[in-house]
Design a protein that fits this description.
It is built from two helices and four strands, in the order H-E-E-E-E-H. The protein has 88 residues and is of the alpha+beta class. It has a four-stranded antiparallel β-sheet with strand order 2-1-3-4. The termini are far apart.
């Protein structure tokens, strides 16, 4: 088994959907597609674009053929931004 298989098994067994880095993310079904170093990645959850408070400004929308992105916090655990935060 390759390292990516070991990582994918651990992620699934612990309730994660993939990995998230500073500027990227990937799901367990297509783990590490860029073959770039993933040493800085963290276990992550898939965020659905539909219903996301930041959907209109999401820079990852549609990336890698997935409607959403990966983040280290569950989507339901993150409060919607206030109007003031969105202006930043």
């Amino acid at each position: 088994m390759r390292c990516s298989g070991i990582v994918a098994t651990w992620l699934r067994d612990n309730g994660y959907d993939g990995l998230a880095g500073e500027e990227c993310g990937c799901g367990v079904e297509d783990l590490m597609p860029c073959c770039d170093t993933y040493a800085e990645c963290e276990p992550a959850y898939h965020w659905q674009r539909e219903g996301c408070a930041r959907a209109d400004t999401c820079e990852y929308a549609g990336e890698c053929g997935v409607d959403g992105c990966w983040r280290t916090k569950r989507q339901m655990d993150v409060p919607a931004p206030t109007d003031q935060e969105e202006a930043l």
